[in-house]
Specification:
Layout: E1 10-15, H1 18-29, E2 32-36, E3 41-46, E4 49-55, E5 73-77, H2 82-91, E6 98-105, E7 108-116, E8 122-128
Parallel strand pairs: 1-4, 5-8
Antiparallel strand pairs: 2-3, 3-4, 6-7, 7-8
């Protein structure tokens, strides 16, 4: 029987320092931290999704062959406009690499602002244009 994928549930983000990475996503992107499991793993929750934060070199995780800090390009959708995103990033001391610029999102045109997390992952914060 064939099937189709409905949605993305979670991703695993490999990082150098779990505490530094988790704190950045909480402070800059407003995610909620959840520690879970017997190994005290860390997840960052937002909307109906989560990011599991994996320390580089952890042997007890099933992960991709080349999982390394700084190897991800992630796009997050927000309900505020790009000017608000820029203002918030500046207030958090986060360097903006590019934007606002128009891009193609999964549901149409988006306005995107780009920055990097503490591990160097490219973070795109976008909103759908009216």
């Amino acid at each position: 029987m064939r099937f189709t994928v409905d949605r993305l549930d979670h991703i695993v983000l490999t990082c150098d320092e779990v505490e530094i990475t988790a704190a950045w996503y909480q402070r800059v992107l407003g995610m909620e931290r959840e520690d879970y499991g017997e190994e005290s793993r860390c997840a960052l929750k937002f909307g109906g999704q989560k990011i599991n934060v994996r320390p580089a070199g952890a042997l007890d995780w099933t992960t991709g062959r080349q999982a390394q800090p700084g190897s991800q390009d992630l796009c997050f959708i927000t309900a505020v406009g790009p000017e608000d995103v820029v203002g918030h990033l500046h207030s958090c001391g986060v360097l903006i690499e590019q934007g606002p610029v128009k891009r193609a999102g999964a549901l149409g045109e988006i306005s995107s602002v780009y920055c990097r997390d503490p591990d160097g992952n490219l973070i795109e914060i976008a909103s759908y244009l009216s």
